[in-house]
Amino acid sequence: MKGHNESYAMELIIAKVKQGDMVAFNALIDEYKAMAFTLSLRLLKNREDAEEATQDAFVKAYKNIGQFEGKSKFSTWLYTIVYHTALTQMRKRKLETTDISNELIENSGVFSESGKEWQRLQRVERSNYIQQALDRLLEDDQVAITLFYLNENSLAEISEITGWEMSNVKVRLHRARKRLLSALEQLLDDEVKSLL
Questions:
Q1: Is 122 helix (H, G, I), strand (E, B) or coil?
Q2: Which of 16, 79, 176, 194 satisfies CB 3.0 to 4.6 Å to 21 for a cystine?
Q3: How many angstroms separate the CA atoms of 39 and 88, rounded?
């Protein structure tokens, strides 16, 4: 029942935004800005550019809110705008990589195979290894992992956001997890060898 009440509340907020209510729009921004920024950051790899793309995406969302018909979740509609805004900006600039959120550590199940050594690493060290491993992946792999694990989007939502075919999303996500695990194992092996 809670989920129904939340979706009803979201419908009310969106209806107010469609009527030009900026307070309601600010509530939407507060709800989705962290995940929108994370997606932008994965693509743009620069905090300033990610912030700019996220802001641009929210402006586009506000201007086009009348086109949101509720056929998909609002978050899916919004992340589609964020994704395409960041892609447009990315084509204009090639940038350096920055942080990854620690939430990836908590939300992903792909690291269970890394064994006892992985569990002993401090949280900051783990985050550093994940960042390094993620940076070694192709951009599409980074996007797939970010949307699925960080943003907790479904496969169908990822397909809608990126424009990838559903079967392609499954394959990309499967391969991205394997590549991430392989990159993590390589980093840990290199670390162990450096200690010997």
A1: coil
A2: 16
A3: 14
